[in-house]
Specification:
It holds the Pfam family SAD_SRA. InterPro entries: H3K9_HMTase_SUVAR3-9, Pre-SET_dom, PUA-like_sf, SET_dom, SET_dom_sf, SRA-YDG_sf, SRA_YDG. One of its GO terms (cellular component) is chromosome. Its main location: nucleus. It is built from seven helices and 29 strands. With about 525 residues, the chain is an alpha+beta fold. Helix 1 crosses helix 2. The longest helix is centred in the N-terminal third of the chain and has 28 residues.
């Protein structure tokens, strides 16, 4: 079966030009000279779409894995590889065959969070091996390498890399030298043919998490064997020069093989701020000072005062999960209003109903089994608090959040606005003061304005949402939702992702106009 590869004609200065797409068989020496019209822009969109598919499926499988009870002796799967394999079976991988040179749609400096993402987009098609290659004219020729720091690699300059070969054993007293085969042989052949090799560097971001950065095309200029006294074996060394006229990688950090002063690492000052009330522990991370978050009562649902009498929610009679949205009375309430109506506890539909987007229900006891288990609401993402340098505490997720996903609810004690004013609380900024005003519109009011203007006060009780700060460029959008009552004066305040949010990026919302 033929694959597709990129072959480039080179001038005497080894500059890449005359981009041509040709077809070849990875196990044959036959190649065609057929040139394809490959437009770059659609491929950028394709790369983004494929990465979104990967991250969405990763989050889905991760949630399933977290919900399943742990079993002794059960073999844990590599979730990142499992996701890539599933996408491969569905035919969703980009460039499933290896290619030479740049991959259309991927720019120098692009960063990736998982090693398997490199496979999914065709940048490096090996899950573990650091050297990727294809058979070309009966010879192994390298297409890409990952500078992961597993071996001692050295950066002589910003454009010259000394890359260590692969193989050999240094395990349980067994020591064997690296040999000229597989990836090592492929790099030697690349040196002879002067074919470009993609370089991806594994590094750590400012939060201490690993990521993979595409650094561009390199040429193998020289190779040799030498004795590695630390590993006590003979290893191959490859001197690789970055090709000229390429964009520089911004924020270049030394890879695992070198040394560079590291930023202060966050320290965990509180393992679980929620005290076991959330599905995932809510950690408090601080790399600035030794301050801990202020004390407050952690709750997962809004606390209503005794005088509050909620209007009962009618509920739907659907038994098909509300798949027939044209018949569900809850779904039919939506449209033309600033409030979203979801199915709730008075509906006959199951908890898996499509119209319960913001109602993520978990068992609150990790060991509970049987029908007597208790449930709690919360976020499907592992959120954590972190100390900022100048603005107090913020909130971030340890996993990728797709655009449109429900993140968490803002909960606290429901109060009338005049009650908070009587207490001397200013309402200029919702999140910093641990209070969230519920927007009020005239068509909702059925009595005096002061009687119907409510605030969710999280100064004494609340959840992780109380730490979400506002921003002029928010990553979250606020949505008002009703599901357990029909009183439009006091809807639930939900946070949804306004865009794709990478791991460890602060979650922020816009100011609320009331």
């Amino acid at each position: 079966m033929s694959g597709k590869g990129i072959i480039r004609k080179r001038d005497i200065n080894n500059n890449v030009n005359n981009l041509q797409l040709v077809t070849y068989s990875p196990h044959s020496s036959k190649r065609s000279n057929e040139v394809a019209n490959w437009s770059i822009v659609p491929y950028e969109n394709k790369v983004k779409e494929t990465l979104k598919l990967y991250k969405d499926l990763y989050n889905e499988l991760s949630n399933e894995q977290n919900r399943e009870p742990k079993q002794e002796g059960r073999r844990m799967i590599r979730l990142d590889i499992e996701v890539a394999n599933r996408l491969k079976k569905k035919g969703k991988l980009i460039s499933p065959e290896n290619r030479f040179g740049h991959i259309p749609g991927i720019k120098i400096g692009d960063r990736f969070h998982y090693r398997a993402e490199l496979v999914v987009i065709g940048l490096h098609c090996q899950y573990v091996s650091g050297i990727d290659y294809v058979m070309l004219d009966g010879e192994k020729v390298a297409t890409s390498i990952v500078n992961s720091g597993r071996y001692v690699n050295e950066a002589k300059t910003s454009d010259v890399l000394i890359y260590s070969g692969q193989g050999g054993k240094v395990k349980q007293g067994e020591i064997s030298d690296q040999v000229l085969k597989h990836g090592n042989l492929a790099l030697v052949n690349s040196c002879k043919s002067k074919s470009p090799v993609r370089v991806i560097r594994k590094t750590k971001n400012s939060y201490g998490l690993f990521m993979f950065v595409y650094e561009g095309l390199y040429i193998v200029n020289n190779f040799w064997k030498e004795k590695d006294f630390d590993r006590r074996q003979v290893v191959f060394k490859f001197e690789m020069h970055r090709m000229s006229d390429q964009e520089k990688v911004m924020g270049h950090h030394q890879s695992g093989g070198g040394s560079r002063k590291r930023s202060l690492k966050d320290c965990c000052l509180a393992y679980d701020v929620s005290q076991g009330k959330e599905k995932f522990a809510v950690r408090a991370m601080n790399g600035i000072d030794g301050e801990r978050p202020g004390k407050f009562g952690y709750v997962t649902e809004t606390v209503y005062p005794e005088w509050c009498k909620k209007i009962e929610h009618g509920g739907c009679g659907c038994i098909d999960g509300c798949s027939s949205s044209g018949r569900c009375v809850c779904v039919l309430k939506n449209g033309g209003s600033d409030i979203v109506y979801e199915c709730g506890p008075f509906c006959k539909c199951p908890s898996s109903c499509l119209n319960r987007v913001s109602q993520v229900v978990f068992c609150c006891k990790k060991t509970c089994v049987g029908p007597s288990h208790s449930e709690t609401r919360g976020s499907r993402y592992q959120l954590e608090l972190f100390k900022t340098e100048s603005n107090g505490w913020g909130v971030r997720s340890r996993s990728y959040i797709s655009s449109g996903s429900f993140v968490c609810e803002y909960v606290g004690k429901l109060q009338q606005i005049k009650e908070l004013n009587d207490q001397g609380v200013d309402q200029n900024g919702p999140c910093e003061l641990f209070s969230f005003p519920i927007p009020k519109f005239k068509d909702r009011c059925r009595s005096d304005d002061n009687e119907t203007w409510f605030v969710i006060d999280a100064s004494k009780v609340g959840n992780v949402g109380r730490f979400i700060r506002h921003s002029k460029s928010p990553s979250l959008v606020v949505q008002q939702v009703l599901y357990d009552h029909d009183d439009v004066r006091m809807p639930h305040v939900m946070f949804f992702a306004a865009k794709n949010i990478p791991p460890l990026h602060e979650l922020t919302c816009d100011r609320i106009e009331v």
